[in-house]
Design brief:
heterodimer, A: 398 residues, alpha/beta, Rossmann fold, 2 domains, six-stranded parallel sheet, three-stranded parallel sheet, 14 helices, 40% helix, 16% strand, globular, B: 316 residues, mainly alpha, two-stranded antiparallel ribbon, 1% strand, Autoinducer 2 import system permease protein LsrD (chain B), ABC_transp_permease (chain B)
Chain lengths: 398, 316
């Protein structure tokens, strides 16, 4: 049997290599107990962390937004209004939208919400949308293509911040531009619409754990991927909170947003530490898998955060979880359409339109849980009053 | 059994290494939990083994798993009574996908690498088109039981794993196994001696499709609906088979070793995770294993003057 033996030799070398060369890396997250004397096991701060933005976002959480209380997508926190008289023109209007992608449930819900918002306004004569399918190069050519279509206003949801900046800057000279979700590195758009942001999301979840988990409790932090700005802000805010707390972060792991991997990682940690006293997540998509890992191990589910997706909210209610769900509301997809119309009518809009970013708590859970909606629906869609609800969003009339 | 010994030795070493960091794996409950996690990959590796040993590849299993999980969720939509019909449908769909792969490979003479790569792309594109990236519906509790629950302390997935393993070993000892091995070793000689080569290969692809269906049931049960359920599994399955000492190109290797290779790969991933090494490295590890194992096999060839009597290509 020469060949299997050769394979064994190769594998042995591999294992040996794995054990020697990667040892230093191994000491960062999983050797947290040793390091916990001085730190909380959260590792080095992200290079994406900006203290001023962090402070600003945390401050915005307690500010009362201006605008109609029952329409958070029209509200703005501490708005600095901008005069738009120069863009005023008569309808009907041709609105254009360059969309980064519709490749995840969050964008699916948002995109349907935006289309429904457009259908509300008779003054929109034409709505042209191009989907960049998650590719920067396609979005750059999409934006150029839309400029040739005679748009009265251009809405952009950038795929990435830096790469799309020149394309957006070029479009600013021709039409009023509205940017939302991720930003761009130029202030040429008339308005930039976003919820408070990632720092607030991460801090909301981490503060909840700091409050609910007993002192010295072991917290597992689950992240999707490293190096994505919108996710890095969430984690870096949580890190700041955990570093100040008396919690012990026993692990910071990447799940790739994969439910099976999440469940395996949580099971591993439960085995290794006997129990885990709290779970922090940078996104809610795999929160149910994390909860199930505790259930399958026959343990009580510790305090955990998810997001406003129906499957998590349902699990929260059914299992009586101690949980919180910070949100990155999908209702922000309504705002760009409203903003575009305001601009074209010459009405003032905020230069940076900070939308409120509520969190779902055990008190507000019943209001957000809608059993007739599909499991990956986002509760804060602000879409309940829109035409086609709930069927267009995959829900059943109930 | 003899041929599975080297990989079993590696497995024991890895398990010992895991036990040093996490002694829980030595307890029955810990070991069963580990096997439960490995079960989908082991089943897939058994299916992949049949295809590889016949001299072909099946790259479509990963996206087939994803497609089946997403379809199951959409069709069941939380309705308990739909569980069994949908389970049956998944099995049929898996066999059907294998049948298509097999027929295209054998009758149209398209290399299996291309056929199954095409199937991978078709299925993942279709899943994306159908779901738009956001799967709808939900799996029923009954469906999830296979991946989550168990018979007393023994998880269902471990029982399914044992049944699959026994069936695979039995198949390889039956006439089918001998003709499959002969086909992979030397297709022309096998055909000349009366083996219906095409039929044997088609059956191998169908077994691979079936294993993908079973893996989908286990994975969907374990973790629930996800549009990434089967991502990368085709490579994990091929790596596992190669790790078990099965020769790419066909004709050599045992199914037990292939399944042991899958358990070993899972153990290696567990070990990497235990030592805090990012999951992103898993692909790197798999790539190194595939290249190294094939290279190791090739280096050995010149030393033995007639390692493969009557190689199909040499003979033609």
């Amino acid at each position: 049997m020469p060949r299997p033996r050769a394979a064994v030799a190769v594998l042995a070398v591999l294992v040996a290599a794995g054990c020697t060369t990667d040892k230093p890396a191994a000491t960062t997250p999983s050797a947290a107990p040793a390091a916990s004397a001085q730190g909380s096991g959260t590792g080095a701060q992200s290079k994406f962390f900006v203290q001023a933005d962090f402070d600003a976002q945390l401050g915005m959480r307690s500010q009362t937004p201006e605008g109609p209380a029952n329409k958070p997508w029209e509200q703005a926190i501490a708005p600095k209004m901008i005069d738009t008289a120069q863009y005023k023109k008569d309808g009907p209007y041709h609105l254009c939208f360059s969309n980064a992608a519709v490749n995840n449930p969050w964008r699916q819900v948002g995109w349907k919400t935006m289309q429904a918002e457009v259908s509300l306004h008779e003054e929109i004569g034409k709505f042209t949308a191009l989907d960049a399918e998650g590719k920067d190069d396609k979005q750059i050519s999409d934006i150029a293509e839309l400029q040739a279509k005679g748009c009265d206003a251009l809405i952009v949801s950038p795929n990435t911040t830096a790469t799309l900046t020149p394309a957006v800057a070029a479009a600013c000279g021709k039409v009023p531009v509205i940017v939302f979700d991720r930003g761009v590195e130029t202030d040429c758009p008339v308005t930039f619409i976003k919820p408070i942001g990632g720092y607030a999301f991460g801090a909301d979840a981490a503060e909840f754990l700091a409050e609910k988990v007993p002192e010295g409790g072991k917290v597992l932090a689950l992240r999707i991927l490293p190096g994505v700005d919108v996710l890095e802000t969430r984690w870096s805010a949580a890190k700041v909170v955990f570093d100040r707390s008396r919690l012990q972060v026993v692990g910071v792991e990447f799940t790739d947003g994969d439910a099976a991997r999440t469940k395996s990682i949580v099971s591993d940690y439960i085995q290794r530490h006997g129990t885990i006293d709290g779970v922090w997540m940078d996104a809610g998509a795999t929160a149910v898998a994390a909860v199930e890992a505790f259930e399958d191990a026959g343990l009580r589910v510790p305090p955990i955060n998810g997001e406003d997706q129906q499957d998590f909210l349902q699990k929260w209610k059914d299992a009586g979880l101690t949980a919180v769900a910070p949100t990155y509301p999908t209702y922000q997809w309504r705002t760009p359409v409203i903003a575009a119309l305001k601009i074209l009518k010459g009405e003032e809009v905020p230069g940076t339109w900070n939308l409120p970013q509520p969190k779902v708590t055990s008190e507000t859970l019943p209001a957000y849980l809608k059993p007739n909606m599909p499991p990956l629906h986002y509760a804060l869609c602000g879409c309940e009053d829109l035409p086609g609800f709930p069927e267009s969003w995959g829900g059943k009339k109930g | 059994m003899r041929r599975a010994l080297p990989i079993l030795a590696v497995l024991v070493v890895l398990l010992a290494a895991i036990a040093i960091a996490n002694p829980f794996i030595l307890e029955p409950a810990g070991f069963l939990a580990f096997l439960k996690r490995a079960a989908p990959l082991v089943v897939l590796a058994a299916g992949q083994y049949f295809v590889v040993v016949s001299g072909e590849f099946d790259l479509s299993v990963g996206s087939l798993v994803t497609a089946e999980v997403v379809i199951a969720a959409r069709l069941i939509d939380g309705d308990e009574s739909a569980t069994w019909p949908v389970l049956a449908l998944l099995i049929v769909a898996g066999l059907l996908a294998g049948l298509v792969n097999g027929v295209l490979t054998t009758k149209l003479r398209v290399p299996s690498f291309i056929v199954t790569l095409g199937m991978l792309l078709v299925l993942s594109g279709a899943v994306f088109l159908w779901t738009g990236g956001a799967p709808r519906g939900a799996l029923s509790e009954g469906f999830r039981e296979f991946g989550r629950g168990g018979l007393g302390p023994v998880p269902w997935s471990v029982l399914i794993l044992l049944v699959t393993g026994a069936a695979a070993i039995w198949l390889m000892r039956a006439d089918f196994g001998r003709t499959l091995m002969a086909t992979g070793d030397n297709e022309r000689a096998a055909a000349l001696s009366g083996v219906r080569v095409d039929r044997v290969k088609i059956f191998a692809f169908m077994l691979s499709g079936l294993s993908a269906a079973v893996a989908a049931i286990l994975l969907g049960g374990f973790a629930g609906v996800s549009a990434q359920a089967g991502q990368g599994l085709e490579f994990s399955a091929i790596t596992a088979v190669v790790l078990g000492g099965v020769v790419l190109g066909g004709g050599r290797g045992s199914v037990l070793a292939a399944m042991a290779g899958a358990v070993t790969l899972e153990a290696l991933f567990t070990l990497l995770n235990l030592y805090g090494i990012s999951g992103a490295l898993e692909f790197t590890v798999q790539g190194v294993i595939i290249i190294a194992a094939v290279a190791a096999g090739a280096i050995r060839l010149p030393r033995k003057p007639t390692p493969r009597r009557g190689d199909a290509h040499a003979a033609s």
